[in-house]
Structure prediction request, 376 residues.
Amino acid sequence: MATKVTLRQKPISGNRQSLYLDYYPPIPNPETGKPTRREFLGLYIYDKAKNPIDKNSNKETLKLADNIRATRQLEIQKGQYGFLSDVKRKSDFVDYFSILANKRKGSNSDNWSSALNYLKDFTGGMLRFTDINEHLIEQFKEYLLNVKTKRSIKINLSQNSAVSYFNKVKAALKQAYKDGYLEIDVNKNISSIKPEETQREYLTLEELNKLVKTPCPMPLLKEAGLFSSLTGLRFSDIEKLVWGEIHYSKQQGYSIQFIQQKTKGVEVLPISEQAVSLLGKKGKANQRIFEGLNYSAYMNANLIKWVAKAGITKDITFHCFRHTYATLQLSNGTDIYTVSKMLGHRELKTTQVYAKIIDQTKRKAANKIKLNLPIK
Prediction:
């Protein structure tokens, strides 16, 4: 129910009426957080005004009070609370960002936490919403592009890390505007950092089969990694996958029907019988298939051990299993449009990165055959 603002009067001494605004349902008091219904305006009218001066004074005062009421009503409709909105705008953006970061899960949580650390360094730990403007945010962008990493005073933060952290701040600014902390949508006028094209690491089919034969210190990780390489699913989607999302029909075979954690898009993903064989015995519909799988330093450490034990020297992260799926699909003739749909990409250009990898692989293959031709 939307809050309605009504102008009311309260009798006071001196044959006067004090004007106040009545909020119903109540709005939170900025000091106590408790619901409040009244805002006294500090305006008064005379009871039973008889002379022209008092009558005119009452008329002008009531007109002013009603204008304030109308303003408050508009502010509430925008998600602000008029006289309360100043309290929000004087609060700390760094604290607000920290609250948003704490709501994130998995690898996304790590990115938000890292972004928070750089934001604290840039601001000194505090930044009032009233001090936020486009120039300041542009300065923060330049800061990220030139700052050293937390791990080394000699190495700059990578371009793509800067992209990720800056986008988190932009997302927080966008939410802050929606929540009434900012009068202007600062995020709307600030461009993102352009990502740097990087080499996406992936496994060959031969390397993937080496991992199949190699024991992993964390068996659940092995099952999840191989499942990702056979389905293209992100870690976040595998982590939350439940048995009720696995479907089977004689005509279509196996599929997963789920909501992507990253894009929130509803997906129907066909999967192979081999991928299903990795899941083990079927459980209850709401039971997590990979129960106990969590993104952590411990998991990453075991992934590194598993890959090294298999004799693979590439720098492999869990997300590389998704890259592997895309690359192997394209290498085996699956068209890029289908691969894009299987990965749940919203735009085809996102998938085209993998096509470039295939082109590079073809070029290397072309140069492998060399004859001892006479030099002309």
Summary: The chain is about 45% helix and 15% strand. The longest strand covers residues 16-28. The mean pLDDT is 85. The chain has three domains: 4-87, 90-189, 205-365.
